[in-house]
Design brief:
about 120 residues; mainly alpha
């Protein structure tokens, strides 16, 4: 079972809220103010959201999506907010040399997990 952290759940809720044209009732975001601003900053730097002209950063109504929600994957969100996925790191050369076929199988599993996360679209969440 996939366990999603509060920060990830909040990021997904923000993206859904912005995709709705702000017609959804705002979610009760349970992040402290500093973490909230950090999350919005990461989503903006990751090019998932952008600050609207003449708006103040750090307020949800000041942002819009950079692309349709149907084009944003769970992998995009996890990478943008720097959540560990452990599926994008490759085995060290030493590990590969020592463990041969096992290292190859682990690499295949990581590639498969990464592809699966990329296939999960936030719009389907």
């Amino acid at each position: 079972m996939l366990s999603i952290r509060i920060r990830t759940q909040t990021a997904i809720a923000v993206l859904h809220y912005l995709s709705s044209g702000n017609v959804l009732q705002p979610v009760n975001f349970s992040l402290p103010e500093e973490e909230w601003k950090e999350l919005l900053d990461k989503l903006e730097k990751g090019r998932l959201i952008r600050l609207l002209p003449d708006k103040e950063a750090g307020t949800l109504l000041s942002y819009e999506l950079c692309r349709p929600l149907s084009e944003i994957s769970l992998l995009d969100v996890l990478q943008t907010i720097h959540e560990p996925t452990r599926c994008s790191t490759s085995a060290s050369e030493t590990f590969s040399t020592c463990h041969g076929q096992t290292a190859d199988k682990i690499s295949i599993l990581k590639q498969s997990a990464r592809a699966s996360l990329a296939d999960i679209k936030i719009s389907e969440w």
